[in-house]
Specification:
The chain contains three helices and no strands. It is mainly α. The protein has a domain of 32 residues.
Amino acid sequence: MVNDALTLRVMRRALVLTNEAARHPFRQSLPPFKLEPLPQREPITDLAFFSASFISCFIIIMGMIA
């Protein structure tokens, strides 16, 4: 009698794969989170590095003068 009640309770569980790391029921119902690799970026060129350095130094110097 007791065993039947226990097995029925176990058998009523949903047979859906869930995320075991998510502890909240809503987060368990979401599909698993997958990380995608970021696309590779080109290295910064000399001209872009010079431009960024020049603009930042210009802003700092003008901020000290003003």
